[in-house]
């Protein structure tokens, strides 16, 4: 009985140690937003999109054609989170471009796999399989080779 209790405590301690390590690793992949600021807007590229986060927490991405489909039906070239009472949605270019083609040159480089940028209460993350996601104002979107989701 004592061996089983000792083994259980040892496994729990190992799990806590591993959890602490993974959390510390996640923090190390956060990019310095100051490298991406142009005025009061953070501009960045992901490889499949050019995006921005404004000082008020609005997030938007111009997405390469053929990558994203809203409701898995309608081809779209942008997604935005700009109103707290609306889920993430396409704007169909009505408000211009969100990204800057020169953002990679002016900023700190592209946001790659495992990297996260946080600014003004918004967060965007480069994921696996060509995926990319952003959250802001209680909503989120993701797009990539695995499909497009909005909430």
3D structure, described in words:
The protein is α+β, with helices and mostly antiparallel strands and 151 residues long. It is 21% helix and 32% strand. It has helices spanning 2-28, 103-106; strands spanning 37-38, 41-45, 49-53, 59-63, 68-70, 74-76, 78-81, 116-119, 122-126, 132-136, 139-143, 149-150. The strands form three sheets. It has a five-stranded antiparallel beta sheet with strand order 1-2-3-4-7. It has a five-stranded antiparallel beta sheet with strand order 8-9-10-11-12, with no helix packed on it. Strand 2 and strand 3 (49-53) form a beta hairpin. The termini are far apart. 31% of the residues are buried.
H-E string: HEEEEEEEHEEEEE
| Sequence stretches where pLDDT stays below 50 over 5 or more residues | 1-28
Q: Based on DSSP secondary structure assignment, what is the total number of beta strands?
A: 12
Approximately how much helix is present in the residues? 10-25%
Query: Major β-sheet, in short?
Result: 5 strands, antiparallel
β-strand amount: 25-35%
Key attributes of the depicted protein:
151 residues, alpha+beta, five-stranded antiparallel β-sheet, disordered N terminus
Short summary of the structure?
The protein is an alpha+beta fold and 151 residues long. The chain contains 2 helices and 12 strands; from the N terminus they run αβββββββαβββββ.
Topology:
Blueprint: H1 2-28, E1 37-38, E2 41-45, E3 49-53, E4 59-63, E5 68-70, E6 74-76, E7 78-81, H2 103-106, E8 116-119, E9 122-126, E10 132-136, E11 139-143, E12 149-150
Antiparallel strand pairs: 1-2, 2-3, 3-4, 4-7, 5-6, 8-9, 9-10, 10-11, 11-12
